[in-house]
Amino acid sequence: MSSNRAEPAGKQKRTRDRRKPAAGRVELSGTPVRRFAVDDFEIGRPLGKGKFGNVYLARLKESHFIVALKVLFKSQIEKEGLEPQLRREIEIQAHLQHPNILRLYNYFHDARRVYLILEYAPRGELYKELQKSHTLDEQRTVTIMEEVADALIYCHEKKVIHRDIKPENLLLGLRGEVKIADFGWSVHTPSLRRKTACGTLDYLPPEIIERRTYNEKVDLWSIGVLCYELLVGSPPFESPSHIETYQRILKVDVRFPPSLPLGAQDLISRLLRYQPSERLPLAQILEHPWVRAHSQRVLPPSIQMAS
To answer: Which sequence positions are flagged as catalytic?
Structure first.
């Protein structure tokens, strides 16, 4: 369930103090750094289960603040060699504060587990909404595109490339607003240029498949794939085999159903370009005629006041 789901993780140094496990140096908004232990929480129902651990609905006993507590098993993390991904998830997500990015408030660990204190997204994964309805209408799709694009503009300004935008990694807040999660694959790089393979097959851009140096424009490709999947119900390059999927991606073999609105086709075709430099910039997604015609995005009060 994305970051309300147990996924890639890493190890931290063990603490000798069993009563108060070591805490990450992550500040809660407006409060000093404090040390947490599992006894500080009332643990509720599971929100998701995975290979590396589980995510639970939890409440801080002291303040009654509701969170999602991601509990990861060190043994599994070490076995799979995923320590770098956990460190990346903590280092990056803890410093991102945007209404469409899932907050990582803090973390702590004990001898066997790592605990991430995350923002609770009550409506779960976008993927599950898509499973139920198969496709989304233009207004809902446009709103999601605006929210994801706005969050990615913020990430790229912070020199963060997400690299794994997909419905499973987009959680939904109380009003249905998107919360980008799972920063385990993301990178913080001052140069914004990388050369490692990552991400999800159906969403991989040509430059990653070909193991070329890439930059933040990989996220532009992914948001184009996302737009297609939300409207059509399946990714644009989905094929019976991995090889066929790769081949279609490299050829940018996009087949639009006749029912797909022309405005959406235009936006998607401007994002799914083989050459990263030719992809439509995020800011221009927000100004695209099809997006503007169907926009129903409601900004959070704090953003409205600032604008």
So the answer is: 164
Alpha carbon distance 152, 100 (integer Å): 9
Q: Rounded to an integer, what is the distance from CA 90 to the centroid of its chain?
A: 13
CA distance 177 to 117: 20
Rounded to whole angstroms, the Cα distance separating 269 from 84 reads 35
Q: Can you tell me the distance from the alpha carbon of 49 to that of 288, in angstroms, rounded to the nearest whole number?
A: 39
**Amino acid code (one letter) for 185:** W
Residue of 146, 150, 143, 151 whose CA lies nearest to 175: 143
pLDDT digits (tens, 9 = 90+) for 257-304: 999 999 999 999 999 999 999 999 999 999 999 999 999 877 654 444
User: What is the SS3 string spanning 28-61?
Assistant: CCCCCCCCCCHHHEEEEEEEEEECCEEEEEEEEC
Torsion of CA 185, 124, 167, 307, to 10 degrees: -80
Query: In this predicted structure, what is the pLDDT of residue 13?
Result: 33
Q: Which residues participate in the annotated binding site?
A: 51, 70, 119-121, 168-169, 182
Note whether 183 and 90 are within 8 A (CB): no
List binding-site positions for ATP: 51, 70, 119-121, 168-169, 182
CATH number for the domain whose boundaries are 126-294: 1.10.510.10
- The CATH T-level fold of domain 2-118 is Phosphorylase Kinase; domain 1 (3.30.200)
Give φ, ψ of 108 to 5 degrees: -155, 170
Domain residue spans in the chain? 2-118, 126-294
Whole-angstrom distance, CA of residue 141 vs CA of residue 144: 5
Chain centre to alpha carbon of residue 19: 33
Across residues 219-233, what is the average pLDDT?
A: 98
